[in-house]
Every structure is written in C-alpha cells, then in structure tokens.
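Researcher: Quick test of sequence recovery. Tokens follow.
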C-alpha cells in the first residue's frame, strides 16, 4: 500500500466516523449492528463496576455484557443500566470450572442455572452464557460432549420456564484455551441439535471460530441454517483487540450477518488496543458498508 493510499483510507475512515458523532456520544453510533460492550475486557483498569457501565453508555453502546454475576451488586447493576438505558445482553451463568463435561456436576449445573435465571430476571436479561469445561484425562471428546448434552437437557426446562436462553460457547485451543473440550462450529452445533430446545443455542464467538476454522461467513450460513446461533461476539486476530487491528475483515462479516437477517446483539469481547474511545470508534467504523 502506498503512503498516498494509506492516507486516503485513514482520512475516509475518520470522515465516516465523524459523520456519526452525536451530542451524547464522543464516538458515534453503529450504522446497522446492535453492539454490546463487554465491560470485563473494556475499562478493565476501573475497579468500580458501575463506572464501567457508565463508560460503555458514554461511548454510545446500547448494550453491555459481562462474565460472572457472583460478587456483583445485582440490584445496583440493574438500577444503573435502567438509568443509562443500557440493555444487559448476556452474562456468564456457568464458567470453565467445574466442568459441565463431568457427569458428577450435572445437578450442580441444573441448580446453578436455576439460581442464574433469578439473577437474569432482576437484570431483565434474556440470555446467559454457559461453558463446556476443559479436557478430562482419559475421557474422549465424544464422551465429554455426550455429558454436556445430558447436562443441558436437564437444565433446559429450567431456562425455558424462566424464558432465558442458554448460549453455549465454543472456544479455540490454539491461542487462548488449550485443553478445552469444545471448539469449532460442527461439534457445537451437534450438541445444540441433540439438546433440542429453542432455549439452548450457541454463543457464536467469531474470534474463536476464526482461529479454529476460518471461513467465517460460510460457517455463519451453516449456523443460521441449523438455527443454532443465539448470540454473536467479535474480536480481531491476532491480539484479541477491536476490529481493524488484525486480519479479519469485520465490515464484510457484519454485512453477512445483516444479509442473514440476524437482528440480535454482537458482543465486543475484545481488549481495546490503545484506549476505549479509540476502540469504540473502530467498532462503529467496521459497521460501515
């Protein structure tokens, strides 16, 4: 790329961002996509969780997502988001440990989902992320996945009764989660199909899927055709930063989501490369096509 063309593209991107600046946001708004700020990875230096929510709203995000609900003042989080008109799109109901892929944890999963559904009700949140678990020595992938299916089948009626969708997240084992038992779209979709509940789908993290299998748009088509996608997240690669910092053409991917008539949220589960305001501008700029 010549310096002249680089300068032209930078100027064009800045102009595009500037065209969306509003009085209530220093960074602008998304053009097509409903973005949710992951306030665990954004504003990570801010110890006051409520101020993280305020920071996300100030940047123009209409939604937020976070990880565990334990240790958070749920009433204060709910009140703050209502005041800021922020939608809580999803939070983590079941993490990496103990593993959902271990049969001895089945009842723990069901009980925890029940507890988390009560939290979701207070937060007016309609989705909760669940994680499969790391490899168990001596146990095959097939056996672990069968155990995950069994646990989710047991938990699904609890989620259905509460009207809360469980979104199972497949990881990548090449960069971030070596030793995890679920990665790639094919086995993840197989699990969702076997569970057979409209309240159990996938948290389709484009970052993990890119590292694991590539062909993001092609696999998205397969995921939507199978009615397996409940939620979408993004981050660029390498680095797990905002769009434009790595090799993924997120404008193309976000356009594909619109073409596939996805109207749900896209969580920005990425670490800002420089600062939050710059990262937010890049997220919104990626939504231009």
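Model:
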């Amino acid at each position: 790329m010549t310096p002249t063309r680089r300068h032209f593209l930078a100027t064009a991107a800045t102009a595009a961002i500037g065209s969306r600046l509003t009085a209530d946001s220093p960074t602008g708004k998304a053009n097509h996509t409903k973005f949710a700020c992951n306030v665990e990875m954004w504003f990570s230096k801010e110890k006051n969780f409520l101020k993280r929510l305020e920071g996300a709203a100030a940047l123009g995000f209409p939604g937020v997502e976070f990880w565990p609900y334990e240790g958070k003042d749920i009433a204060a989080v709910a009140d703050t988001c209502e005041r800021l008109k922020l939608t809580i799109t999803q939070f983590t109901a079941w993490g990496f440990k103990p593993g959902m892929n271990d049969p001895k944890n089945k009842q723990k999963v069901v009980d925890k989902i029940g507890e988390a559904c009560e939290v979701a009700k207070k937060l007016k949140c309609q989705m909760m992320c669940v994680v499969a678990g790391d490899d168990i020595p001596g146990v095959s992938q097939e056996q672990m996945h069968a155990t995950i299916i069994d646990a989710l089948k047991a938990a699904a009626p609890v989620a259905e009764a509460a009207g809360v969708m469980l979104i199972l997240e497949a990881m990548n084992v090449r960069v971030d989660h070596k030793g995890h038992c679920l990665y790639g779209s094919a086995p993840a979709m197989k699990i969702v199909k076997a569970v057979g509940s409209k309240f159990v789908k996938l948290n389709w993290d484009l970052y993990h899927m890119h590292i694991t299998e590539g062909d993001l748009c092609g696999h998205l088509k397969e995921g939507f055709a199978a009615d397996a996608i409940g939620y979408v997240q993004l981050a660029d690669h390498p680095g797990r930063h905002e769009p434009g910092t790595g090799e993924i053409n997120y404008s193309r991917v976000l356009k594909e989501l619109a073409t596939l008539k996805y109207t749900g949220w896209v969580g920005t589960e990425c670490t800002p490369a420089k600062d939050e305001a710059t990262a937010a501008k890049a997220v919104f700029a990626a939504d231009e096509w």
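Residues 1-23 have pLDDT under 50 and may be disordered.
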